[in-house]
AAA+ ATPase domain-containing protein
Amino acid sequence: MAQGQYINNDATVFEDAQALMALNKNILLKGPTGSGKTKLAETLSETVDIPMHQVNCSVDLDAESLLGFKTIQTNDKGEQEIVFIDGPVIQAMRQGHILYIDEINMAKPETLPILNGVLDYRRKLTNPFTGEVIHAAPGFNVIAAINEGYIGTLPMNEALKNRFVVIQVDYIDGSILSDVIRQQSRLDDMSLIKQIVQFNSDLRTMTKQGQISEDAASIRALIDLSDLATVMPVRRAIQRTIIDKLEDEREQQAIENAVELNF
Ligand SMILES: Nc1ncnc2c1ncn2[C@@H]1O[C@H](COP(=O)(O)OP(=O)(O)O)[C@@H](O)[C@H]1O
Ligand SMILES: [Mg+2]
């Protein structure tokens, strides 16, 4: 369900992101999985009314998936010609749009330096496939997301990190979480939502005590849990959305204890 806006008790998260964007700073959203990084970028894009182009990083990310590729097309005269199809980076630069680079620390370190000129004040790229020099149109902005320490990620290259200003995006809780569940899930049973929010608060305490990992229950998992709770008993919903995803039996047991306490 792609609805609802990014919300947070700590208004500085959104306000500062918007201010950084107005200053044309590159923004690095840092936080655990399902903490609302993509939602924050989408809400920013809607607020400033500038479309967003997304790149999803993985070890397979290469220059083509960032910049585009050459292909053969037939023109109006019926002749075949080689054309370059712009990828997300060049599209965003030409149109003065937002470029969102998701999971930037999943990319191989040798892939991203191609963006160095795009990320510094020059906002300039020499397309290695065509030789064309592209200057970004006004409005062009870069937002990247990173989940440090997550499986498969690498520490972010310092020269790259140096080009960003960091905004920490943590899991929301309390009444704000209750609002997000109401807006983004099918659940409207307020007393059950209240229990889920309290259950989540206990899980956060267990995270601080080191009993469970931080992302054992992300906001995404809580929304899934709330959806499932409309069609099955809440305990089974928790089993399917949180407990069965964990590999560590002690973590599973800790969460089962929190279930006993709250439901
Ligand atoms: N602070 C928040 N405000 C609104 N929605 C949120 C918030 N945090 C998480 N969500 C919701 O939780 C889910 C996961 O968020 P997402 O932005 O995809 O996380 P991330 O990109 O950090 O992995 C989405 O459905 C999103 O709408
Ligand atoms: Mg995301």
